[in-house]
Amino acid sequence: MESYALLLAATLNAGTVLAIASLGLLINEKAGIVNLGAEGMMLCAAIAGFAAVVHTGSDVAGFLAGAAAGALLAAIFGWLVIWLNTNQYATGLALSLFGAGFSAFAGISYVQEKLPERPRFAIPGLADIPFVGPALFRQHPMVYLTIAFTLALIWFLYRSRAGLVLRSVGEAPESAHALGYGVRRIRLMAVVAGGALCGLAGAYLSVIYTPLWVEGMVAGKGWIALALTTFATWRPARVLLGAYLFGGVTMLQFHLQGRGVEVPSELLTMLPYLATILVLALMSRNPTWIRVNMPASLGKPFHPGS
């Protein structure tokens, strides 16, 4: 029973990385922008956050540094695709490649560094409940903040005027522009916010989830986060549930290995990526369902006055 509680706890921890990044990408795509640079932003944020904690000893400084790194790279991406009208897909891929190379270069001197002793968190009273306590109430505060942010994002997108404007920019930017809204400014703000969340996910990965710095440590999680937004049909609650699903698949390999299940380790390592491919393959069989839920102007450039 204890092993299953630890599996559930690890699932929440692993899913948080994907959830934060996916929610950031969802904000981008709700505004009509596709950013394929999530992997690169997360890598740069991971080394930025790790380095900040090494030098300051503060996890908060690490999260802020990661979010700032993600926001900066996203701002550059936004300037290129929104104001200079470069191709969103090509620019995102270039950002991803840049992030992989730059993070490897910047992180050379941090490979052997160790973070200060990691604090342990527990909610008094609840953490001692059998099974439930170790599974749910001994998590890092970021796990609970991610759930709270998901609820707040649902309210923002579907209950607030600002959220309605953001969605209208992603659905019909020409109409939003005709009503006097600054489409390009709103899109840039959404891209920067999404980049900050991707950066926060990268910092969480290197500061809390591992915690260490290794070249390429994001290991495809940025691409899974991109797939997850489609898998969740651009709904925040589904993004959160999907992130935990993929987090569970990731942790399952370690759980099976710990229980002595005779399965090749290479196959277990492939599980998260196989699950991603399988889900996308199943969804592609019903393109109408995706098209109905997808923001109408996703990936399409907007030229004011054209």
TrEMBL record:
Residue intervals passing through the bilayer: 6-26, 33-54, 60-82, 89-111, 141-158, 188-207, 213-232, 239-256, 268-284
Cell compartments where the protein resides: Cell membrane
GO molecular function, one term: transmembrane transporter activity
Annotated membrane topology: Multi-pass membrane protein
Keywords (A to Z) from UniProt: Cell membrane, Membrane, Transmembrane, Transmembrane helix
GO cellular component, one term: plasma membrane
Protein name: ABC transporter permease
UniProt feature coiled coil, ranges: none
